[in-house]
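Re: that backbone. Tokens:
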């Protein structure tokens, strides 16, 4: 019988690509991960890893096993959800991950709803870049999270997660005057930290307009981005939730591009009472964000 804990390590290696990253995510030492994966190979009776120096890649058999592991873990999550449904009071800890611009407008109202309707539920919130949320959900450091994608930056959360749409936002060009993307070929740009979805969105949107932006400043807080625009430091792309209170000198020009936010959770968790309550509260808060 294959050990589910070892299978989970193999699944994480498929996503994170290095043993060190798996160890860091799941609080193991790299040597412990290597030992567990070697033991899994013995249990499986076929090679699962190809080692070239320090580099490790999965064999075709390992990739097939990862697919089965996703299904097994989803079934276990569903079984847990069904057990919890028998409780009369919704209690325990619910770990929620979100991005900064959603905290004030969506998450805070949702927390009020959850705390009022389920006072025994212990809520914890982690602010993180949406690109990191799928890994955190798979590693079970989060139970539910808000993830994003842009028109120019599609995101595949992977087979381990289920998602559902929450809201769609307009993307604005923030500048000191009404203008178009193409009119800022030679302008300095302000974008998020390299590696974030916001940074990638800025680069790809500009490339679609026929040029590569000259990014001079990096800032992840949209209030700070708008203040930099107001100071004449450059122009930027800002989603609707981040552009609610722009400085009076900043002009927001709507673009055709959109940012979409989805609720994400592990497969099999949709019917878990705490996750279901959070999904409902988030949808209610998103529907009333402008009221």
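Recovered sequence:
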């Amino acid at each position: 019988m294959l050990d589910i804990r070892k299978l989970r390590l193999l699944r994480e290696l498929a996503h994170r690509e290095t043993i060190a990253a798996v160890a860091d995510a799941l609080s193991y030492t790299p040597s412990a991960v290597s030992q567990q994966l070697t033991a899994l190979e013995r249990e499986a009776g076929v090679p699962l890893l190809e080692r070239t120096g320090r580099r490790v890649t999965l064999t075709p058999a390992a990739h097939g096993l990862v697919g089965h592991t996703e299904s097994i873990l989803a079934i276990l999550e569903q079984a847990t959800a069904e057990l919890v449904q028998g409780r009369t009071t919704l209690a325990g800890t619910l770990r929620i991950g979100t991005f900064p611009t959603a905290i004030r407008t969506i998450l805070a109202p949702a927390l009020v709803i959850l705390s009022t309707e389920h006072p025994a539920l212990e809520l914890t919130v982690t602010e993180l870049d949406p690109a990191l949320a799928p890994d955190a959900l798979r590693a079970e450091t989060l139970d539910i999270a808000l993830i994003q994608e842009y028109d120019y930056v599609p995101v595949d959360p992977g087979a381990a997660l289920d998602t559902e749409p929450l809201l769609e936002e307009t993307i604005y060009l923030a500048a000191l005057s009404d203008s178009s993307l193409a009119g800022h070929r030679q302008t300095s740009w302000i974008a998020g930290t390299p590696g974030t979805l916001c940074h990638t969105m800025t680069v790809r949107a500009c490339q679609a307009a026929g040029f590569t932006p000259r990014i001079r400043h990096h800032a992840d807080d949209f209030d700070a981005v708008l203040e930099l625009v107001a100071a004449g430091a450059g122009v930027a792309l800002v989603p609707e939730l981040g552009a609610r209170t722009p400085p009076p000198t900043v002009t927001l020009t709507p673009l055709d591009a959109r940012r979409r936010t989805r609720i994400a959770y592990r497969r099999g968790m949709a019917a878990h009472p705490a996750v279901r309550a959070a999904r409902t509260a988030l949808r209610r808060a998103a529907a009333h964000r402008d009221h």
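Residues 60-84 form the longest helix (25 residues). The chain has a mean pLDDT of 89.
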